[in-house]
Specification:
Length: about 220
């Protein structure tokens, strides 16, 4: 069984999906982390993320091995775990360009589909309900007002980097939302049959409860 949770940046997908996975006894997958991993590798190797030929060549020569740890699927790239570097500014500002490349999407979608080998999944991303697992009956689209999302992300950035101006974060989020929604391949959109949850003004617990009770009603867990 696959529970798909899609939505824009900082809509609460990660926290909610991780908690829902825990409550259901499912495995958690952050699909964005894989796009960030490829971006991290490009930055490390000095590859221009808009150079599709160079990016495709990188995908051919690198390895990305999946690893199951603490009920979540992670990965190592050429044997190396990028850790928190995938959340830092150089990756953050380039990831949407990488995610718009056709060869990257084919590569990552294949990795995401392979993850069913680990068991039942809660997978969060942008195209999980539309492209990766469109046949899954369990789909959610999580949203929140841009200002609320920017406030949430600024707090996260402040915690890790010491600074994080809400206005700057808001314009960075808007840039990324715009790229993610307008790209030709697998743009961010609401999947057919997805239940929409606007989490502005809701607590994390309320959102998790909404999803878990809905899945209980559907008979996914008792
Ligand atoms: O944490 P945040 O929601 O800001 O981003 P993320 O989930 O880590 O995803 C980073 C970027 O990867 C997004 O801005 C998208 O460009 C891309 N992505 C995607 O294209 N498809 C996915 N299924 C997941 C992420």
């Amino acid at each position: 069984m696959i529970v798909a949770v899609d939505g824009p940046s900082a809509s609460g997908k990660s926290t909610v999906s991780r908690r829902a996975a825990q409550a259901l006894g499912f495995i958690y997958v952050d699909s964005g982390a894989l796009y960030r991993g490829v971006t991290w590798k490009c930055v490390k190797e000095g590859i221009d993320v808009t150079d599709s030929q160079a990016v495709t060549n990188l995908l051919i020569r690198m390895t990305m091995d999946l690893v199951l740890t603490d009920n979540a699927v992670g990965y190592v790239i050429d044997g190396e775990d990028p850790g928190q570097e995938i959340r830092a500014e150089p990756v953050r500002e380039r990831v949407s360009d990488i995610a718009a490349q056709q060869s990257v999407r084919v590569y990552i979608v294949e990795k995401l589909r392979q993850m069913t080998q680990f068991g039942n999944l809660v997978m969060e991303g942008r195209d999980i309900g539309t492209v990766v697992f469109p046949e899954s009956p369990y789909k959610y689209y999580l949203d929140a007002d841009p200002e609320e999302r920017a406030r949430r992300r600024a707090v996260e950035i402040q915690q890790t980097e010491g600074t994080g101006d809400v206005d700057e974060v808001l314009s960075s989020l808007r840039r990324r939302d715009q790229k993610d929604s307008s790209r030709v391949t697998a743009p961010l959109q609401i999947a057919l049959g997805a239940k929409i949850i606007n989490s502005t003004g809701m607590t994390i617990d309320q959102v998790v409860d909404t999803i878990v009770s809905d899945l209980k009603k559907a008979g996914v867990v008792s």
